[in-house]
Amino acid sequence: xxxxxxxxxxxxxxxxxxxxxxxxxxxxxxxxxxxxxxxxxxxxxxxxxxxxxxxxxxxxxxxxxxxxxxxxxxxxxxxxxxxxxxxxxxxxxxxxxxxxxxxxxxxxxxxxxxxxxxxxxxxxxxxxxxxxxxxxxxxxxxxxxxxxxxxxxxxxxxxxxxxxxxxxxxxxxxxxxxxxxxxxxxxxxxxxxxxxxxxxxxxxxxxxxxxxxxxxxxxxxxxxxxxxxxxxxxxxxxxxxxxxxxxxxxxxxxxxxxxxxxxxxxxxxxxxxxxxxxxxxxxxxxxxxxxxxxxxxxxxxxxxxxxxxxxxxxxxxxxxxxxxxxxxxxxxxxxxxxxxxxxxxxxxxxxxxxxxxxxxxxxxxxxxxxxxxxxxxxxxxxxxxxxxxxxxxxxxxxxxxxxxxxxxxxxxxxxxxxxxxxxxxxxxxxxxxxxxxxxxxxxxxxxxxxxxxxxxxxxxxxxxxxxxxxxxxxxxxxxxxxxxxxxxxxxxxxxxxxxxxxxxxxxxxxxxxxxxxxxxxxxxxxxxxxxxxxxxxxxxxxxxxxxxxxxxxxxxxxxxxxxxxxxxxxxxxxxxxxxxxxxxxxxxxxxxxxxxxxxxxxxxxxxxxxxxxxxxxxxxxxxxxxxxxxxxxxxxxxxxxxxxxxxxxxxxxxxxxxxxxxxxxxxxxxxxxxxxxxxxxxxxxxxxxxxxxxxxxxxxxxxxxxxxxxxxxxxxxxxxxxxxxxxxxxxxxxxxxxxxxxxxxxxxxxxxxxxxxxxxxxxxxxxxxxxxxxxxxxxxxxxxxxxxxxxxxxxxxxxxxxxxxxxxxxxxxxxxxxxxxxxxxxxxxxxxxxxxxxxxxxxxxxxxxxxxxxxxxxxxxxxxxxxxxxxxxxxxxxxxxxxxxxxxxxxxxxxxxxxxxxxxxxxxxxxxxxxxxxxxxxxxxxxxxxxxxxxx
Length: 936
Hints:
Elements: H1 3-22, E1 42-43, E2 50-51, E3 59-63, H2 64-69, H3 75-79, E4 120-124, E5 127-128, E6 149-156, H4 160-163, E7 170-176, E8 182-192, E9 199-210, E10 213-224, E11 227-228, H5 242-247, E12 258-261, E13 265-268, E14 277-278, E15 293-295, E16 298-310, E17 315-332, E18 336-339, E19 349-350, H6 360-367, E20 371-372, E21 378-381, E22 388-407, E23 410-428, H7 433-440, H8 465-471, E24 476-498, E25 501-519, E26 539-555, E27 559-570, E28 574-588, E29 591-602, H9 606-610, E30 614-620, H10 643-649, E31 662-668, E32 677-690, E33 696-712, H11 716-724, H12 731-735, E34 738-740, E35 748-752, E36 756-775, E37 780-796, E38 803-805, E39 815-824, E40 828-837, E41 840-841, H13 846-849, E42 865-866, E43 869-880, E44 884-891, E45 927-935
Parallel strand pairs: 4-7, 18-19, 31-35
Antiparallel strand pairs: 1-2, 3-6, 4-5, 6-7, 8-9, 8-45, 9-10, 10-16, 11-15, 12-13, 12-20, 13-14, 16-17, 17-22, 18-21, 22-23, 23-24, 24-25, 25-26, 26-27, 27-28, 28-29, 29-32, 30-31, 32-33, 33-36, 34-35, 36-37, 37-38, 37-39, 39-40, 40-43, 41-42, 43-44, 44-45
C-alpha cells in the first residue's frame, strides 16, 4: 500500500524541475519588512473584511513567520500549542479500540476550547475542507499544504451564520498564498534527544505569471518514525511504588489468570514450562503501554497548486487543486481473551472455559483444585501472536473552480468545490474468536470445525504456530470513500453611506452535499473478530442555505453594529436558523471595546446518523430482579426492588436473575432521528493599541459558550439506573430504551445505547494577548504573549442529571500561556519560546478531590496534583543575503517529562493503555531539528 510514495516522490521531483526551468529569477514579493506591525493583517472571520484589532469577535492571528519560528512541520504543530486549544487528536494520543473504526489515526485535528474537533469548523481560504476521517467533519491538517500557508486565524464563538454548521466553538481559517514570484525550497530533519522519532522532509514552492495568468504550485514530503512506550523510562514510574505499576497494568497476562474451586484460588503461570503459582495482585502486571505508540509513525506527501486568470473585463477565473497522501501505522499490545459464563460487551469476551479444554486436567492436578470457577472471569494474554497492527492509508483530492470580480462598488465570488477521500485500513494479527473458542472446546461436538486445532491456554508459550495460522483472519481490510460537493456564490460591498462611513453588506447562497460509503471486512461486523467491531457508516446528507451579513456604522469611526443570519434546509434535520450580532465602540484612538452574541448549530454528521446498528452482549444488574433462583418463577422472600419497577411492570411481575447480573443485548450505532446541537456564545472585550509604548498592541476578551442537545450515548448500566433508581433526569425517556419480555419472565432483552441528543456542555474563560516591538542599535526586538484562563468547563451527561464540572483537570487547565521573544537583524534571527501549562488535577471526582495531597504509600506517583509545566524552545536562523537560510532549533530544551496519569483520573483515560495525556504534555522529550532554505 506504500508503493504510491515512490511514484509520488518521482512526480514531485519532475514537476519541480519543470517549474524551475520555466521560472525567471525573482524575489518573493510577499516578504515583509521585519519591523512591520502584524496587527494590520486583514482577517476573514467575516466576509466583511477587517483587521484583527477591529474585529468584533476575538481573533488570534498566526502569520507565516510565526509558524516558521515555532519549528512546526504542519499547521497543527503550531495551532495545537495555542492556549485556546483543548486536547487535540494527534501524533501522541492516537488509539484504536474494539468499538471505533480507527480511520482518524495519522490525522492532526483541532479541538478549539476543548469542545471537540467536530465542533470546530476548519476552513481553507474561507471555504470548507473535506474531512479525512470518513463520516465526520473533522479536518486533518496533515492534508493542507504547509508551504502555501500565508496565515492562520482562530475566531472564537458562534459563526454558523457566516460559514454554516459546525462553527460552534469557533472557526480556524487557514489562508493560503494566492500569488508568489520565485522559487523557495526547504529541507528539514530532526531527532529526539533519545535518538529516535527521526523526522525528515522537504518542500518546494514556485510561483510566477505568464501575462494575465498567475500560478502557484507546491510539493511536500515528510516522514516521521515511531516512538514506543518501551523507549521511555518514565513510562513505568520511578520504581518506588509497586502499587503504581499495578494500577497501570493489566491482569490479563501471558501466564493467564485462572480461578478454581475446591479449594478457591487464583493462579497463573510465571514462566514457560513451569508450574502454576498463586496470582499476586501486588506484583507488576502486564504493561500494555510499552507496546503502544507514544508517537505514531507517519508518511505524508502533498501536491498543490492554484491558477488564476484576469480577463479584460476585470473578472478573475481561478482553479485550486490539491492531492494529499498520508499513511500511518499503529501498534497495539497482543490480544487477550476473557472467559466467563456471563459474556460482556467486548469482542474479546468468550464463553466459559469448557470442562474438556486442552490442558485443563493438568492444571487442576497441579493446583489440587476440583474444578475451574467459571463464575469468575478468567483471562489470558495471547503473547504468542505478537503485537497487533493497523495500517491506515488515505488519499485526499480537492479542487475548486470559480470566478470573482468587481461589479461597481460590489465584490462578488462564485465557485464549485469537490473533495474526496479514499481511506483503507488493514489490521494485522486479527484473531477469529469463533475458531479460537472451538479450539478451546477441543474441536469436539458442535465445535468440530473443519481444520480445527485444539488450543491449550494453560501456561506460557502453549499456543502453537499451527493454532496461530488457523485462527488468524487474513486480509482484514476496510475501505471507505467520502465525497463532498459545495457550490456557493455571494456578493459583498457598500450599500450606502451612514454617519460618514459605508454600510457594508453580504448576501449569498450555498449548497453542500456530503456522502460516505463503506466496504467493511465481514469479520468486523459479524462478531467473529476478537480485535474490534465497528459501526460502518454509509449514507449522505445535503443542505441548501441562504445567508447575509450587515455592518452598520452609527458614528463615524466610533460605534459600529454588525449582524449575520443564515437559513439552512437540511435533508437530515430540517430547517435551521442561525444568527449573531456584534458591536464595536472606539471612544479613543488607543482603545476600543467589542461584544458579540450569537446562535450556532452543529448538524449530525453522516457517521452519527447512519452508522450501522450492532448488537453486542453486556452484563447488566437488573434492579427489578426479584427472583435470584433463575427460572423458578417465584418472588424471593425479602425482595424489595424499587417502586418504579412495579409502576413499569405491574404488580406480581417476575424478573429472574442470577447474582451478578444477566447477559443483555446492547444496541449501539447511529440514529437518523438526531437533532442538531445548538450553541449560544457571548463574548466581550477590549482592544488596545499604543504605538508610542513599544508599539504595543493587545486585547482581552471574555467568552461564554453553552451547548444544548449535545449528541452522545450512555452505557447500558447507566440507562437502567436512570430508569429505575436515580430517576434524576427524564426516567420515561430512559425506560423507553429498555426492552423486556412481554410475558412470563420479564427479563431485559435489549437496551438501546444509540446516539441521542442528551447532553449539554459549557465553557467560560478569558483570553488575553499582547505584543511589543522596539528597535535596537543592531536590530529589532519583539515580545508576544498569549494567555488563557478557564473559569468553567462542565458537562451534563443527560437532561436533569448532575453537572460534572472538571475545571482544573489536566484536560481543562485553568491557566495557560505562550510567550515568544525574538531578536532579529538582516542576517540573524534568534527566538525563545515558552509554553506554560498551569497546575492541574488528574481527576475531579469526589474521590480524586479527597486525595489532593500526596499519598505517603505512593510517593508522588498517584497524587492527584500535577505541577505547572513550562516548555522552553530555542531557534536560530542565519541568512546569507536573501537567498539562503539555515535554521537550528530545539524544542523542550530541558527534556521535561510528562506527568503520570492512569486510572486515578475520571477523564476517560484508564488502565494501562494510557499513562499520560499525550496531546497536552510532551511525550517525545527534547527534540533537535535543522532546516535549510533556498529562495530566489
